[in-house]
Amino acid sequence: MQATDPHRVVEAVWRIEAARIIAGLARIVQDVGLAEELAQDALVAALEQWPESGVPDNPGAWLMATAKHKAIDVLRRRAAYDRKLVEVGRDIDQRDEPDLAAAADDYIGDDLLRLIFAACHPVLSTEARVALTLRLLGGLTTDEIARALLVSEPTAAQRIVRAKRTLAAKRVPIELPPPSDIAERLASVLEVIYLIFNEGYSATAGDDWMRPALCAEALRLGRILAGLLPKEPEVHGLVALMEIQASRTRARTGSSGEPVLLLDQDRRRWDRLLIRRGLEALDRVDALGGTLGPYALQAAIAACHARAVTAEDTDWARIAALYVVLSHVSPSPIVELNRAVAVGMAHGPAEGLSLVDALVSEPTLAAYPQLPAVRGDLLAKLGRLDEAKREFERAAALTRNERERSVFLARAMVADSGTTEE
Amino acid sequence: MRYIVLLKGAEITTPPPPELMEAIMKLGEEATKAGALLDTAGLSPSAAGAKVALSAGRLSITDGPFAEAKEMISYALYEVRSKEEAVEWTSRFMKLHRDLWPGWEGEADVLKVFGPEDF
Lengths: 422, 119
Fold this sequence. Notes:
The complex is a heterodimer of chains A (422) and B (119).
Chain A: H1 6-29, H2 32-53, H3 59-79, H4 83-94, H5 97-119, H6 126-136, H7 142-149, H8 153-169, H9 182-201, H10 210-228, H11 233-246, H12 272-288, H13 294-307, H14 316-329, H15 333-347, H16 349-357, H17 370-381, H18 385-398, H19 402-416
Helix pairs in contact in A: 1-2, 1-3, 1-5, 2-3, 3-4, 6-8, 6-9, 7-8, 7-10, 9-10, 9-11, 10-11, 11-12, 11-13, 12-13, 13-14, 14-15, 15-16, 16-17, 17-18, 18-19
Chain B: E1 2-9, H1 18-33, E2 37-42, E3 50-55, E4 58-63, E5 71-79, H2 83-100, E6 106-113
Antiparallel strand pairs in B: 1-5, 1-6, 2-5, 3-4
Helix pairs in contact in B: 1-2
C-alpha cells in the first residue's frame, strides 16, 4: 500500500524544515512576521503543486528555494524605494540554485540562533515569547498553540500577531546578541523553553494531547539549542534537567490518573534512555568547567534521584548539599522548601522541620499547598499527628488540583487515625 | 512519539563506499541537531549473534548466522511528532544509499515505540 499522501509529506517536511526556512528568510528580509508569511506561501505552493507534480526528491530544499524566490520578489518590489536593496536582490538572484542551497546551509546554524533570540526577545512579554517560539521554532499551528496553552484560538492568534508587531515596531534586529548581552538574552531563551516544558509537565490525565506534547517540543528545542551553542553549560544543564524529568513521565501518574510522588514511583517505569541522555548532558556541563548554574544544579539534583535504583538508595546528603549551592545561586522560598525536604531525609525530620518553620511566615508561600504538605509530612514522621493532620487539611484546601487534594486528604485521614506512617 | 527504524538488506560482501558513510554521518548529525535522532548504531552480521527461541515450552539457543535472506544492518531511534516525520528522515537516509551506493537494495521498517500517547 502506498503511504505517500503528498499532504502528509508536506506536513512532515514542514515540521522538520519550517524553523530553518523562516530563519533563513528572516535574515534576508529582517522581519520575522514577513519571513513567516513567505514560508507559509511556500508551504501553500507545495500543497498545490506536489499532489500534481509528485513530491520532489529533496522536499526540504524545494521549500527553501521556493521561499527564497518569494523573498527575492519582495526585495525586488521594495527596490523601487531603496536602491541598495536592488543590489542585495540581484546578488542573491544571480547565484545558481546549488550555491543558494549551500549558502543557506552555511547560515542555517546562525540563522536559527538569530530566530530563537528574536522570538525570545525581552521586549516581548513571557506569554508572547512562549507563543511566538512555538509558532516560529516549533512550526505549531495557531490551533495547536491554543490547545496546548489552554487559551482560545483568537487569543493565541492575537498573542502571535502582537508579538510580531512588537518586534517590528521596536525594530528588534534579527541578529545574534552582542557578547555583553548574551547571558541575559540566553537566560530569556532558556526560561521560555523551560516554561514550555513545565506547561506540558503540568498536564493532567484527560487533557488535550497537545499539552503533554509540549514536553517533547521543549526537549526538541533544548536539544537544538545544545547543538547550536555547545559551549554554553546552562543549555546542557537545562537539557539534562528536562531529559531526566521527562524520564519519569510514565511513572508519575497512577492507573486511575492520580499523581504518584517521586519517592513512590515505580522506577522500572522510568525511561532509561532519557536518563542516560540526561546524565550525558550533565557530563557535558562538567566537562565545560566553571560553577554550576541554576539549571545544571537542578539537573544534578534530579540526577541523584535518577541514579538511585530504589528510593531508599537516594543520596539525600548530596541533594541537601546541592540545594545549599542552589539557594546561593538562585535563592527562592521554594528552593528553601525543597532543601528542607532533603535535609529532613538526610539528617532527620526535626532538622527539616526547623527549616520549614522558618518559611511559615513567608508571604510568597502563603497560598502554596506544598508548604503545609511538607510540614505535615515532617510532623507525621515526628509523631506529632494532630498538627500533621491540620497541615494536610490546609494543603488540601489550598491546592487547585483535584487529584492532589484527594492525596492530601488521604494523608490527613491517616494522621487522624493515629498511626505514624514510617 | 518515538519510532525505531530497522534497516535490512542483503549481506554485505564489499564495504560501503566511504562517501556513503560520510553522508550518513552528516545526516545523522543533522537529525541529532534537529532534536529528532536519539540513538543509532550499526549492527554486526548475524554470524556474530545468536537466536533464543521459545517453542512448545522449550527454549532453544542457536548461534548465528540466521537463515533469513536479509540481514539486520542498523537501527535508529527517532523522537518525532508524526509517523510521516519518521518516514521522511528514513527516506533521506535511503536516498543516500540510492545516490551513493548503486546496486544496493534494502528496506527499512519504521516501527512506533509504545508511548504515553498510546494509553
